[in-house]
Write a structure and sequence with these properties.
Layout: H1 7-11, H2 15-23, H3 29-47, E1 50-53, H4 55-59, E2 75-80, H5 108-115, E3 118-124, E4 136-137, E5 141-142, H6 158-165, E6 171-176, H7 182-188, E7 191-194, H8 208-211, E8 215-220, H9 223-233, H10 251-254, E9 263-266, H11 277-292, E10 296-299, H12 306-332, H13 344-353, H14 358-381, E11 384-388, H15 411-421, H16 426-431, E12 435-442, E13 448-454, H17 460-473
Parallel strand pairs: 2-3, 9-10, 9-11
Antiparallel strand pairs: 1-3, 4-5, 6-8, 7-8, 7-12, 11-13, 12-13
Helix pairs in contact: 9-17, 12-13, 12-14, 12-15
Length: 492
């Protein structure tokens, strides 16, 4: 099949760059979709990031309702198989239990993405219900890291991260309830923003009040694509529980200017968890780089009760996921999860959380409030907190201690083990504040290591502004200018 551009040219342009070609009449949106679908078919057998290609949306870029006049002008886009629904398309949530589930309507965010001109051409892999560190159920798929396919992609936005990391698409949809955008972005060499609460709607089935920690977003290769996605897809639907905020200036304009010199706090010892020596070395190197850009950098950490906060986060996850499973059981009139269709740890989480009391949730919310207030005071003194994206190295495929396929009998112990790996991401979910993973470092084994910048509520633009300054300083060469082994530029 004849492509409209070489793979080097394809990878050389971000989403807005490809959209510009469409707007200029140099290519059509369907030609871009055809090239993206060809890339998926070429690399997916090696990394298993896409569950399904929507062939009709490849041949006709408007079939799913993408606005050709939108900012992204029909750009091919992948939707995580969890969260927003697309009318008439399967959404199976990484679960055998959900096989054949076909929603009949769009969610509000889907309408925003389509209005922005994003042509949804397929769905990407996720662990069951998004509750896991990696998409690894051999009965469904095993999503692999494009830098080294012996290693995990992490998750839960697994497929979206590997497809962006491998250069298949310049951006893809993702969700984040404790790091599920930032962690896979960080281990696959991409950019991942977890936005402030009140940015992206999860209407009509839920709200920020009911979901508490989870948010929507995207994984990209450039800062301006992230900015454009937020600018065009943010906003609340009718009847939101809380107001949805908007910045005074579009993020695409904000990122054109360097931020003022910032006060950046650096840390990695958070309660019982700390990074490996190599990760600390990479953190130090990143801190020195930020200092060279004119920022004040100092090693200091927030004075919060970390162990209490991790325990509250665990309570939140267990009770949230237990009700997710409960709701799915009610639809089929079942009184317990079928062991052959729902993964073992998700059953244990249901067992642990299904009978939680209002007092249990109230205690959790008190800990959330205490943590958020302390972080809020910290951000009055410091503009940014810099941490690694993970405390430990990316695990090899089949490391069951982090999977919902594990035989660990305790949901509480399983979550505590997860926090030891993902120590630095969950508190921005707890507090509703933004965090951004940037592909600035490497693990000792050569795999990408994201560095995370976090800030106070509603200051997402500051994160993107700093990220854009970094991007300019490194001349756009994220991942130290290297590419993964599985990549579109390696397609014959």
């Amino acid at each position: 099949m004849t492509m409209v551009m070489s793979w080097a040219e394809w990878f050389g342009k971000d989403g807005l760059g490809l959209a510009e070609l469409v707007k200029n009449g140099e290519v059509t949106a369907s030609e871009l979709a055809t090239q993206a679908a060809t890339a998926i078919r070429a690399v997916n057998p090696q990394i298993s990031g896409v569950v399904e290609i929507f062939e009709d949306a490849v041949s006709d870029a408007t079939v799913n309702g993408a606005n050709p006049e939108g900012a992204f002008a029909g750009l091919p886009f992948l939707l995580k198989d969890l969260g927003p629904t697309l009318a008439g398309r399967l959404q199976e949530q990484g679960s055998l239990y959900m096989k054949g589930n076909r929603p009949t309507s769009d969610t509000f965010l889907t309408t925003k993405m389509k209005a922005a001109g994003l042509n949804i051409i397929g769905r990407t892999t996720t662990p069951e219900f998004g509750c896991c560190s990696s998409a690894e159920n051999p009965a469904l798929y095993v999503t692999r890291n494009p830098w080294n396919t012996d290693f995990t992609s992490c998750g839960s936005s697994a497929g979206s991260a590997v497809m962006v990391g491998a250069g298949v698409v310049p951006l893809a949809h993702a969700t984040d309830g404790g790091g599920s955008i930032r962690i896979p972005a960080g281990v696959n060499g991409a950019i991942g923003l977890k936005s402030s609460r009140g940015t992206f709607s999860i209407a009509p089935a839920a709200s920020d009040f009911t979901s508490v920690v989870s948010t929507q977003g995207c994984i990209t290769r450039t800062v301006r694509d992230t900015a454009a996605f937020v600018d065009n897809c943010r906003g609340g639907a009718a009847g939101e529980f809380m107001p949805y905020w908007s910045p005074d200036e579009p993020f695409l304009e904000v990122i054109k200017r360097d931020p003022k010199p910032l006060r950046i706090a650096v840390s990695h010892e958070w309660g019982p968890y700390k990074s490996t020596p190599h990760i600390v070395w990479e953190l130090e190197r990143t801190a020195r780089f930020l200092e060279s850009l004119g920022h004040h950098v100092e090693w200091v950490k927030p004075s919060i009760d970390f162990e209490k906060a991790y325990a509250a986060q665990t309570a939140c996850y267990i009770t949230n996921f237990a009700q997710t499973v409960n709701n799915l059981l009610r639809i089929r009139g079942l009184d317990k999860p079928p062991a052959d269709l729902i993964e073992p740890m998700n059953i244990r989480i249901w067992e642990q959380g299904k009978d939680a009391t209002y007092t249990d949730r109230a205690d959790m919310q008190l800990a959330f409030n205490e943590t958020a207030r302390t972080f809020g005071e910290f951000y009055e003194k410091w503009d940014i907190v810099l941490t690694p994206i993970t405390a430990l190295e990316t695990p090899p495929i089949g490391t069951t201690q982090y999977l919902t396929m594990t035989d660990n009998p305790s949901a509480l112990d399983w979550f505590a083990n997860l926090w030891g790996f993902f120590a630095y991401t969950p508190f921005s979910n707890l507090c509703g504040t933004p965090g951004l993973s940037l592909p600035l470092a490497r693990h000792a084994n050569g795999l990408p290591l994201g560095m995370q910048i976090q800030t106070g509520l509603g200051r997402d633009g500051l994160l993107l502004q700093l990220a854009a300054q970094i991007e300019r300083a490194i001349e756009g060469k994220w991942n130290l200018g290297d590419l993964p082994k599985v990549h579109v530029t390696a397609i014959a």
